[in-house]
Amino acid sequence: MAATTKFELKLGMATREAFGKALVALGKENRDVVVCDADLSKSTFTSLFHNEFPDRFFSCGIAEANMVAIGAGLAYAGKIPFVASFSSFVMNKGFEQLRCAVAYPGVNLKAVGTHSGISIGEDGPSQMSIEETALACSLPGFIVLSPADEVSTMALIRAAGHHVGPVFARTGRMKAPIIYSADQKFEMGKAIQLIDGSDVTIMATGLLVAESIRAQETLAAEGISARVIDFHTIKPLDRDIIRKAAAETGAIVVAEEHLVDGGLGVRIAQVVAETHPCVMEFVGLTGYAESATPEQLLDKYGMLARDVAAAARKVLARKPK
Amino acid sequence: MQQQQKSLDELTVMAKRVRRAIIEMIGAAGSGHPGGSLSAVEVLLTLYFRTMRHDPANPKWKDRDRFILSKGHASPVLYAVMAEAGYCPADKLNTFRKLGSMYQGHPDVRFFPALEASTGSLGEGVSLALGMALAARLDGSPARSYAMLGDGEIQEGQVWEGAMFAGYHKIDNVVAIVDSNRIQLDGFVKDIMEIEPIVDKWRSFGWHVIDVDGHNLAALDAAFQEAAATNGKPTAIIARTIKGKGVSFMENNPKFHGTAPTPDEVKRALQELQ
Ligand SMILES: Cc1ncc(C[n+]2csc(CCOP(=O)(O)OP(=O)(O)O)c2C)c(N)n1
Ligand SMILES: [Mg+2]
Q1: Strands (DSSP E) along B17-143, which ranges?
Q2: What ipTM was predicted for this assembly?
Q3: Do B99 and A122 touch (CB under 8 A)?
Q4: What are the distances in angstroms from CA A257 to CA A106, A188, A309, B123, B142?
Q5: DSSP letter at B237?
Q6: B130: in domain
Q7: In a domain, B254, yes or no
Q8: Domain count, chain B
């Protein structure tokens, strides 16, 4: 039975660009929104905010740890700071500041990382952020976002700006297929079921959402009914949707462009273990990648629809009859 | 056999060849960082062919001097100069940034073991060089360590933690070279976050500082000799350079920090570098 999908998956903006646009919109709404960047404003698209609101933009130089703590100071003083850089630099160099100056006191700072995952391509592992979910989710009180397309990015960055408390959002470099229609509603912490199915559930985030939709089509052609859920929020997890999927489909695949260790998959596995244990498989990275085109890397490191479909077949083979 | 020294005249010729290789590599890759590669050519040539004791046939020689490209995005200049020295094949340079190449986007010891360190996250090179220098001190080895930083890079706090450590511990077998080309990623350093006066900064952290024309081979040669003769203090060499040096439309042009030349620009650049 061939499935026809309502998902066209037309290429849209990169999620980093949608972030830059959302920041400008927030800046218009609220004069307390301020932005810090660390010599990457053209890559993170905070340059859009800089052009619009030059006096609310702080160029921090190549000094991410200092930038995060300056952001914390701005937040302590009542501003709504967004601090941005490549994800690997704002998260890794800024981690201690995100911990002691932000998470611990619970200040209202938003950290946004761009160029997440291996799909940045040629620059290679030093610029690829593949540990950020583990790090961000380890910080008590943080909301961790990982939007898949421009529509969800715009909505979730807006929601982050309105939420009082620390948020980390990961965004990507590549143009991302559009998943959602413009009128879709998003709520931080509420995952979105894109496709219903009864044999297996594919839970995905970021770029892997589109790949999972494609995998579902392949599986449908084989007579396998796969449910697909977008986890645009990695923390807090939507426990209800996970429990329901575990109970109703009895098999789960989690797909993410991140290390399996400490990633979305192991976080979901915890909820599955606590609510309704079932078989699971994990599509993710196991180590550092290398330089090549994004397409070559996604292929070599197993981040394609093909890989998600293979994991689904594997988990189904393990599912108790 | 230890690397033989080359004359300054030979290095002048080599500099053009290295610049052409940089343009060709980045052109073939379609991405990369030409500006900061071109500004560092003379510094690396002086180090690899006049100053450092090293052996391309025996890259892991225990007592070798070590070079760390802290500004790892300038990897093309490192690869092209190491190819000139015989560490790696020149005819493979154009595989730069391609799947499986030893010439990764940023220096990667997993793919190119003769490199001294994997870099690419700015700010770490001085600390790495200090660790290597401390090990040499412990082992009674004459090995010296050289780290090259970008001028934007020295905005990283870690650089100054390393600088303070080296000054306090009087680590005189370390040299930091700042490629002072006045441009970083988003634009001119003065418009992002000014770092001058950098001579005063390094001096106040206890370093011997040499301010030098970073494209003058003789001046660089003399500066590195002065560094080697400096006891009881680390040395910082502030190399005043031009970002994009040698290609008229790249010189002093922030656009070519991280933009590859188009095929037409490659052609024009190579003509200028004849
Ligand atoms: C920690 C860190 N932050 C940001 C970057 C992204 N980045 C790569 S090159 C660069 C600018 C470097 O400027 P500079 O140090 O002056 O180097 P040069 O002019 O010699 O190319 C930046 C911000 C990085 N590689 N590492
Ligand atoms: Mg510079």
Answers
A1: 66-69
A2: 0.96
A3: no
A4: 28, 20, 16, 27, 46
A5: E
A6: yes
A7: yes
A8: 1
What's the first-to-final CA gap in chain A, in angstroms? 22
| B148 domain residue, yes or no | yes
Is the whole-model pTM more than 0.95?
Answer: yes
Any idea of the CA torsion for A40, A160, A97, B154, to the nearest 10 degrees? 10
Write out residues 48-77 of A within 8 Å (CB-CB) of B: 59-63, 65-66
Boundaries of domain holding B192: 8-272
Q: Give the model confidence (pLDDT) of B195-204 as tens digits.
A: 999 999 999 9
Domain CATH code at residue B185: 3.40.50.970
CA distance B167 to B203: 9
Q: Is the CB of B118 inside 8 Å of chain A's CB atoms? A: yes
- Mean pLDDT of the region A72-91: 98
Q: Whose alpha carbon is nearest atom 4 of ligand 1?
A: A62
Q: Does B127 touch chain A (CB under 8 A)?
A: no
Q: Nearest chain A residue to B187 by CA: give it.
A: A39
Cα–Cα distance for residue pair A33/A80, rounded to 1 Å: 5
Cβ contact A291–B105 (<8 Å): yes
Centre of ligand 1 to C-alpha B153, Å, is 6
Q: Is B67 part of a structural domain of the chain? A: yes
Q: Which domains does chain A have, with CATH numbers?
A: 11-177 (3.40.50.970), 192-318 (3.40.50.920)
| A4 has a pLDDT exceeding 50 | no
